[in-house]
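User: Please predict the structure of the protein below. I'd like the answer in C-alpha cell form so I can feed it into my own downstream comparison script.

Assistant: Understood. Taking the following sequence of 367 residues as input:
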Amino acid sequence: MKKTTKFALSGLAAGIAFAAFTTTAQAQEEWTMTSTWPENLDLIKIDQHWAELVNQLAGDELQINFRAGGTLMPGTEVFDATETGSIEAAGDWPGYWAGLNPAFSPLATTTSLFNGVDYLNWIQQWGGRELYEEIYGQFNMIYLPYGITNNESGFMGRTPIESIADLEGKRLRLSGRDQGRVLEELGGSQVTLAGGEVYQAIERGVIDAGEFSTPGVDFKAGFAEVADYWATPGWHQSASVFGVMINKDAWDALSEDTQEKLRIAADATMAWSLAWSERQSTEATQKFIDAGVTINQFSEEDLARIQEITNDVILRGACENADHAKVYQSMIAYLEHYATWRDVSAPFNMSRVMDNLPSLEEIEACL
C-alpha cells in the first residue's frame, strides 16, 4: 500500500513537472516580421539588427522570423498587414504613411530642422516616444522607434545643382509630404519613386536628380555609377527615424518582461544605427569622390532661404491637422528648451544652433 501510494505521488509530481514544461514550451510566441526594405537596400540592416537582438534577449519567450521586404508582400502593404494582424510586426519609415495622417511626416524626418542627435534627445527625454505610440496607436499598433540616420546625402544626378536657383523647373525624386511642399516653393517638382527605382530613373533621365538615403546607403545602391553631380547638404531630410510597427493584439499577448526586452533592444539598436550609418556615410563619401562625382554645396544664404520656406510650410501644415501640429509643437518646444544649455556649449554642443525656428506660438494656436 505504501509502495503504491509512493508510486502514485511520484507519478503525479512527474505529470505536474511535464505539464509545466509543456506550458513553458507552448508559451513561446513566434512572430512573422517583414520590412519596407528589400534585401539590396542597406537600411534593412537596422531591422535585422533589432530582430536578431530580440531573439537573443527574449528567445525563450519570443522568436521573430524576419523576412526581407517584398518577399511576403509589397512594401506598401506592410502597414495594413500589421494593423490587421496578418503579420505581427514590420520595420518601416513613418513618412510612407503620411497620406493616412500627416503627423507621420515629422515622425519620419524633418526638412532643415532636427539632426540625428535631436531625434535621439527628443525621443528619449522630451516626449517623442509617446507621440509615436499615440499616432500609431490610432491604427491598432504599438511603435518602437529603433533607428536613426543623420543628414541624408542630397540630390544626385547628371545635371549640376549648385544653388537653389538651379532647382527651378527640375524634376527631383523626393520623399515626404513637407519636403515636397518646400521643393515646390523653390520651383522644383517632386517625383515619387520607390528607393529601388531611383538608380534607373537617374540613368534614363526620367528625373534630373534624386535622393534616397545616406551616402552609405546610396553608394551601395549604385548611385556613383549613374550620377556625375551631388548637391549637398541634404536639407530635405536633416535626419530620419525608422522603427517597428507591432500589432497591438500581438503586443498585448506578451508578458511585461518580454515587452521590456523589446524596448531595450530598440534603444540599443537606435544607438547602434546612428553610429553605424555615420561610419558608412564617411567611407562612402570618399568612394563617391574617388569615383569622380562632383560635390556642390548650397551656400549659407541658400540654406537660410530654405529655412524660411520650411518654417512657413510647417505652420501651414500645423493648421491643417491637429496631430501634425501636436508633433511639431513638441519638436519646436524641445529645440527652444534645449537651447538653454545647447547654445552656451557651442561649438561643442550635440545639436544644431538655430536662430530661425517656426513660431511656437503660431503652432500652438492651431492645436
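That's the full C-alpha cell string. The chain has 15 helices and eleven strands.
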